[in-house]
Amino acid sequence: MKWVFVLLFLACAAYVHFRGRVRHRLGRQLLDHSTFMAPVNVLMYLCSRVPTRPFIVPEQHFPELEPLRAHWREIRDEALRLRELQQIKAAEGYNDVGFNSFFRRGWKRFYLKWYDEAHPSAAELCPLTTRLLREVPSVKAAMFAELPHGGELRPHRDPYAGSLRLHLGLATPNDDACFIEVDGGRYSWRDGEWTMFDETYIHAARNDSGRNRIILFCDVERPLRWGWARAFNRFVARNLIVAGASPNQEGDRTGAINHLFKYFYALRLKSKALKERSESAYYAIKYGVVAGVVALIVWW
Fold it and tell me: Considering only the top CATH level, what class is 55-254?
């Protein structure tokens, strides 16, 4: 029975790696968080009621989201007011594990909600947007996301397939030089227009337009065919994804994972220092740890 689980895990990991046209190098994929979530994600794909392709047309499958697009100008006004107050910003400490690497390349955010009620800061500063989001329960997480000129997000895939990503253009360059690529397909943001994609495909973004870009960024619960699958998805969200909550201001919730992140990041800094001194030692330890974990699983 143990070998059945091992082979099932390997099959799911291989499917995640070869899914789509764009792939990580095998060495990177072995250590990517999506590999460890592969069996759960394959289950989400099998149970999905919407197409499992890179881009999805939101109005065809999510009519409940239409009020967000209908009120995009009012939402934009709240986002621009936040920007004037310098509240759309990078995390002020090591308390946003999910997006920590993005901050180094110019990306900024202001959380509106994260698998829970609105942050107190969001309810105070963005009353209209948080009210609209409250009326659309399928939106599990939302934020304003800013990408300035010269900013970029390197190719990556998100770890969990229980949601789909919605981008609604608010204050964008309206320029093809500001774009996102999902599995090799490109979309350029426009004011008042939206796109939806499966964030477990490899995606990347750049802004070379000379102007700033602000969007409404939402994670929308993936519709699933069966009640047991929906219950499982919500269990994972309540007990794992919610632990990634990150604050805008003091008084906002910080999830358990982000409370621990500063300690893991200190270890990460030590590993980067080792890599600078000796790449061979760094990779020997890195792949040795992976081999050790695999051996424990196989022989347990």
Answer: mainly beta
